[in-house]
Specification:
9 helices, 257 residues
Length: 257
Amino acid sequence: MNKPDSRFWDIFFEVYEDLPRQGPGNKACAVRALGLCRELPDYPAILDLGCGVGGQTIYLAELTPGSIVAIDNHAASIERLQGSIAELGLSQRVRAIVGDMAHPELPPASFDLIWSEGALYSIGLRNALCICHGLLRPGGYLAFTDAIWRKENPPPEVKAGFDLDYPTMGRLDDDLAAIQDEGFEIVGHFTLPDEAWLDDFYTPMENRITELRGKYASDVEASKILDQLAEEPGLHRRYSDFYAYEFFVARRPLARK
C-alpha cells in the first residue's frame, strides 16, 4: 500500500481536527485508569504526550487538581486545545505546547503522571517507554493506551490498515514485556469497551465525514479520500474481535533507600 500523499493529510486533518478526540477512549476509561494510580500526590504534575485536540487533557483537568503540560507536534491541534483551556478557565493549571514527543525538552524526573492515549507507538513503543521513564519521578505513574492484536490472521484489509500506521503492533504479552523491560512495574491494564470507540470517536467521525461530503461533492479526489477514511468505522464494526485498544497503567519503581 502506498503512503498517503499531502492531499490525503489535508483532508484527514480536516476530519480529525474537528473531532472531540482523535482515537478511542472516553471519560469513564480515564476515571478507571486514574483509579489505578493510587499513590499520586494531592496536586500531581501531569504530562499528556501526543495530546491532539485535548479531549483527554480536559478530562484530566476535571478529574485531578494537578498541573498539566500537554504536548503535540500538530500546531493546529494545540491551537484548538489552547482555545478550550482559555474558554474553560484552566489557563492557571493547563499549558498546551507544540513539541516533539521524541524530544520533549522537559526536565528529567519532573512528573508524577504521564498520560498518553494512542500516541506512544508513533515514536516506537520501547523508545517512548524509555523517554517516559526518564521524565517520571521515582514512584510516578505512566497511563497509556495502545493498539494490540487479539487474534491471529486478521482480514487483509484490517492488517493493511494497521501495517500502514503501526507495522510493529503486537499482542498484549508483547506490550507487557516491553513495559517491564523498560524498567516499569505493571500496576494494571484493561481493554477499552466498544462504546469508547463508537460513542466518542467513530460516531463524531462519521458525522464529520458526512458534513464534508457536501463541501467536496464536486471534488472527485477529496470524495475518494473521504470514502477511504469512512472505511475504518465499518471495518471496526465487522472485525473488532481481531484487535483492541488496551489501557495500561505502570509505575516507575520508588528509589531504593
